[in-house]
Amino acid sequence: MMNPTPGDRLSAYSANGAHGSVLVINSGSSSVKYQLVNPIGGEAIASGLVERIGEGEGIVTHKFAGNTTTARPVVPDHGAALREVLGMFQTQGPDLEQSNIVAVGHRVVQGGSYFSGPVLIDDDVLGKIRDLIPLAPLHNPGHVAGIEVGRALLPDVPHVAIFDTAFFQTLPEAAYTYALNAEVAREHGVRRYGFHGTSHQYVAGKVSRVLGRRLEDLNQIILHLGNGASASAVRGGKAIETSMGMTPLEGLVMGTRTGDIDPAVVFHLHRNAGMSIDEIDDLLNKKSGLKGLSGENDFRALHELIEQGDEGAKLALDVYIHRLKKYIGAYHAILGRVDVITFTAGVGENDDIVRALTAAGLESLGIAVDPVRNEGRVKEPRIISPDWTSTLVMVVPTNEELAIARQCIALVDEDPAEV
Ligand code: ADP
């Protein structure tokens, strides 16, 4: 018998009458995003955000049944943040006890080489996520705090960790190894891990279902273009290359990150501009990319500046598109044949100018975008290439929360007695 897919497990799950929801928690360094998801229908039952944790007055925004509630309590730490979240469910709904939460899914950015899929969180798993803090100092501390408090506040449901890096654990050694001194690399965990994996995996699967073609038969390039941005090459459903590296800083030009840069720039700025390592870290991660080149990291604002004749904004767009084309060319060479290129995330789904410029001039690779099919924002999966191309170009909206919720169900439902 073939192994059941997550989809099979889902239908079995709903046929059992055991409908339930998954609380998805994404704890950042100073924020917690959450969503209560119906993993079968796919809709967000409720969602919200706690911002400015540890900064005096915090901001809590909760959305349920068409209403948005905002509060400004003092939120000193992640414990207080999650208590605010549970408080919002209590006062604004929906009642969590009635919602039959069957799992809490925690998004974790860095899973290192330990995790190649979702795992039930126990003390050992939490310890490993803590051990990985040196590799993800901006992200993993918030995750650890969110998981500790989440398990304490909701002790009766399984907590699952979903790693941004897991999908990229299939990268071949040649793709994940940096040509750095092997001993140093091994000792300090220096290698390509890749990030945004949940989104790349979800989109790769969705492309196959939408086209009605077997995932195993497809060679795909996926461009996840949000505020953070990454590209991946996926052969037969398995990732074989990706643009983010040991951290999310490498690769494409992003909202505020440089993406690829000569590492010697760091030495130069340290030695000659007198900048500390922390200042350079902040410069490369938060003050560069589109924002560093133009003052704006949002494409809507960037296009407005370009229309007003702003040269910095025009250059920012040119650098962004140039980098994207380089990655498409490189991944073409690595895949050999590309069946589908897919745009996703905030920029990929909404910005038809970026999509058109990225494909422009790639006709000799069999890649083009049809101006009419490409027009406007895309809310449902759509093919945007003309009929003659050898490579399909698509836009497929991503949904990381739903992907996390479904992975949680696929894991916890293997033993229905546990649910
Ligand atoms: P992240 O999850 O990385 O914060 P998103 O995937 O939500 O980011 O993408 C956010 C980005 O999407 C914004 O910074 C903006 O550049 C872009 N974006 C959102 N809406 C539009 C739009 N209507 N037109 C062009 N770009 C948009």
UniProtKB/TrEMBL annotation:
UniProt xrefs under Pfam families: Acetate_kinase
Location(s) in or outside the cell: Cytoplasm
Keywords, sorted A to Z: ATP-binding, Cytoplasm, Kinase, Magnesium, Metal-binding, Nucleotide-binding, Transferase
Cofactor: Mg(2+); Mn(2+)
Binding locations of Mg(2+): N26, E400
MF terms in GO: acetate kinase activity; ATP binding; magnesium ion binding
Residue positions binding substrate: R107
EC annotation from Swiss-Prot or TrEMBL: 2.7.2.1
Sites annotated Transition state stabilizer: H196, R257
Binding site for ATP: K33, H224, L225, G226, N227, G228, D298, F299, R300, G346, V347, G348, E349, N350
A GO CC term attached to the entry: cytoplasm
Cofactor note (record): Mg(2+). Can also accept Mn(2+).
Superkingdom of this protein's organism: Bacteria
Pathway assigned to this chain's UniProt record: Metabolic intermediate biosynthesis; acetyl-CoA biosynthesis; acetyl-CoA from acetate: step 1/2
GO biological process, one term: acetate metabolic process
Enzyme class: transferase
Active site positions, chain numbering: D164 (proton donor/acceptor)
Catalysed reaction, written as an equation: acetate + ATP = acetyl phosphate + ADP
Stated family: Belongs to the acetokinase family.
Functional note: Catalyzes the formation of acetyl phosphate from acetate and ATP. Can also catalyze the reverse reaction.
Subunit field text: Homodimer.
NCBIfam families: ackA
The name this protein goes by in its record: Acetate kinase
Natural source organism: Flavimobilis marinus
Organism placement in taxonomy: Bacteria, Bacillati, Actinomycetota, Actinomycetes, Micrococcales
The gene coding this protein: ackA
